[in-house]
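Q: Make up one entry.
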Amino acid sequence: MKKKLIRLILSLIFVFEFLVPANIKPVQASNGLSISPSSYSVTSGSTVTITVSGSSGYFVWDISASGGSGGSITSGLGKTSLDNGESTSFKVKVTSNTTISVSGSSTVYDTDSDKYGKTLSASSSVTISIKSSSSSSSNSSSSSSSSSSSSSSSNSSTSTDTAEKEETKSSECTLSSLSVSTGTLSPEFDASKTEYTVDLEAGSSEIEISAKAKDSAASVSGTGKKELEAGENTFSIKCTAEDGSTKTYKITVNVDDTPTVYTTYNDQNLGVVANQNNIGLPDGFEETTVTLDGEEVIAYYNANMDKTIVYLVNEDDEKNFYLYDSETSSISSIFIPVTILGRNVYVVDIDEESQSREGMIYQELTINEVTLMGWVYEDENYSNFQLIMVMNDQGEMVLYQYETTEDSLQLYNDYVPEQETEQLTTMTYVFIATTIIAAGVAIYMYMKYRNFKNKSISAIKEIYLKDDLNTNENQD
């Protein structure tokens, strides 16, 4: 009876230790890095899969792993950097109680400043314990066990089998090869390096990317033929392990976008931009072609404005639209679409003759965060007024007056002072003409008067002479 009681107690102890592993420590994590094991308690010699996760909003790099004093790493980390919640894994063979740990550097992404913060030290650890086997040997020598003990042992065996099946899934997610059909990868392919560049000559339009996974159970996506545009083209190749771990390789293909057609304007060399996708074409313009420097190039025409523009880059690598003069097959002005206080207009160059305005100074202005050339008044009493000349959506040059204190913009009637000047000039002419006519009339009247006076004097003299003659005749 005593022996049966002892066997029962030993069986209960075995079940308790099997179901409630000892010395389990919670996962410890800091600064965006955490780990979790596939099992916290295993039999000696078992393999545990450790999942390493990065926290959302963190970028963690230079990650390294340790199996501790009682564990050895059998399969290394799938990747050594994690961005914004990514995860990876590695495997550890556990022979005794051990603390498995990972460490690295991390930083937090600040959405307000659109920058990463200072570098932090990240780490995480977890303790794996070994199941006791003493009660197992006692149990095997015992021929009788309670039904509950047998049931528990059966359930534990099933659980262990399931865990072992899960642990057999591979976490290998690296590539064994990566190549391109044209050009050369820089640097040379290395499974541990994830970023590469390829430089191609102008006019390259297609490239084929090939890749192969190191593990036959892993899958690869992002390969095949890719269309190219002038400038920078970025492609991602992802390798996904059997257990879902991923590693992404990036290839940046740079197609030479140096212009092949040039022209000159305002003593600057301007080149036709090779890649004209996503250039922010203004509304109402449709693609066409024009002849520039003897070559046919892409241009854009707006029928409503009756204007043609081309997209060029200057010597400072600044890209802008320019007005094209079809009569001279040359550039006539810069053409920059802007919105000023709700008005969609175009900034164009002002010719030297139009830059001169009486009582005003031509200078650079900033209105509603748009910088352009315009005028301010010399008279300080009008220092809150500014004047700009732009092109409207009808292709017409118009003047706007900007009032700084109320931040308002309105059309400016440039013809009012000219009308006043014209009226003043007309009045001056009328006055001069009237004065001349009056003077002429006065002279005419004076001459008439002189003539009348002379005639009157002559007539009187003639009368007197006749009287004298008559008197003399009578005397004779």
Notes: Confidence is low (pLDDT under 50) at residues 14-26, 135-154, 415-421. Residues 353 and 429 are 28 Å apart (CA to CA).
